[in-house]
Amino acid sequence: MTEKWLAVKDRSAWRPEDLDIDRSWQFEVTQDHAEELDRALKGVKMRGLAFGEIRKEDFPLPSFAKILKDLLSEIRDGRGIATLSGVPIDYSYEDLEKLYWGLCSHLGIGITQNVEVGLIHYITDGDLAPKNGAGILGKPSPVSLHADLTDCVGLFCTHQAPDDPKSLVASSMTVYNEILSNHPEYLPQLEKGYFWSRRDKHPSESSHSEFRVPAWSIKGKTVTCRFNAGWIKKGMTEAGVELNNEEVKIFDFIEKTAAANSHAFSLEPGTIAFWNNYTTFHGRDGFAEIEEEAKKRVLLRIWLDLPNVRSFWDEARIRYGAIRHGQLGWTAKEVLEGKNRDPHLRRADGVPSI
After folding, report:
1. Dist. CA 132–CA 122, nearest whole Å
2. What are the structural domains, with CATH classification, of the chain?
3. Comparing C-alpha atoms, which of 40, 162, 166 is closest to residue 104?
4. Position 18 pLDDT exceeds 90
């Protein structure tokens, strides 16, 4: 890249107190909206559609669509975090999957998240855990601040743990501004980027990306973050390139700065939280382990590609480099067409083709 690093001055660079003062990132489902959701759900059930077959036009939300348009704008162009509370949850999980997928079809396109080609990932340590595929997510231990692999992640809470662990969000644009102000010497290494682990999501491919993905990059005035310490550290080890002492120091600064600027909030049953993975980090506090199944914490995760999400220095490398491998990164339509049986197409340098 040859572009000059610029401070981020828009609403995506925020401090925790900003989210307390300005609650425009919080949205609510009204009774009328809930009735629209129910009618749309009944419509797709009458047609016998599986949730992955549901498209936006199959799930009409005449008045609610305006709220979802504003919510999408907040995710994409605003704070990068948005919550939607009051979503009806008095349904079977089969119906909740259809309702959730149909609602999210008004925001973007859902994509696969694991080697089992899963489009909705259950985050729980209870009986629904097998739907996670190969890995169990949702164990009681704390989850450090991180970003997922797609444009946006949605977490739909259907049951919360009794001690109500707080969800966390931090602005990766604020972290970037702190780097720019205090340690600009870190930026060349962060721009060079890192190899990402593929977490054994496809045995026929390399264990890690064959190319580096910039942790922060800039295109014009648009700064983009692609940072997940866990995936990067594992990927660097798999590539035979351990982090050096300076990089360890950089990672430590990033993680401490994110934690110091994180906002905590309750994710209550019937609430969906959406995070922009280019401008925010998310995590949660730990919670007490419980045996009673009815009290287990359950979240439904969707990974979304968003329309017109932002400008990238190299869209294929930054947007898709960490997600398009093995059975990850396929749309429901591509899965139904069997395209996921073949590897993702790649450029000569190993970066996914777009």
Report:
1. 5
2. 16-341 (3.60.130.10)
3. 40
4. yes
